Amino acid sequence: MPAKKYKVTLTKEERIDLKQLTSKGKIAARKLIHAQIVIIGR
Fold first, then answer.
1. Which value, in Å, is the radius of gyration of the alpha carbons in the chain?
2. DSSP H or E stretch at residue 13
3. Cα–Cα distance measured from residue 6 to residue 4, given in angstroms and rounded to the nearest whole number
4. What is the pLDDT of residues 1-42, one digit of tens each?
5. Among 6, 34, 40, which residue's Cα sits nearest to residue 21?
């Protein structure tokens, strides 16, 4: 059974916040990967 896919719509501010979070370099790897997935939209 394929994984469920959810469509996530981010506001401009949310996208900026996630990009800033991923560029800091001092967050947990799991949190970083999840943020990158949401930004990319996959």
1. 11
2. helix 12-24
3. 7
4. 677 778 888 899 999 999 998 888 788 889 888 888 888 875
5. 34
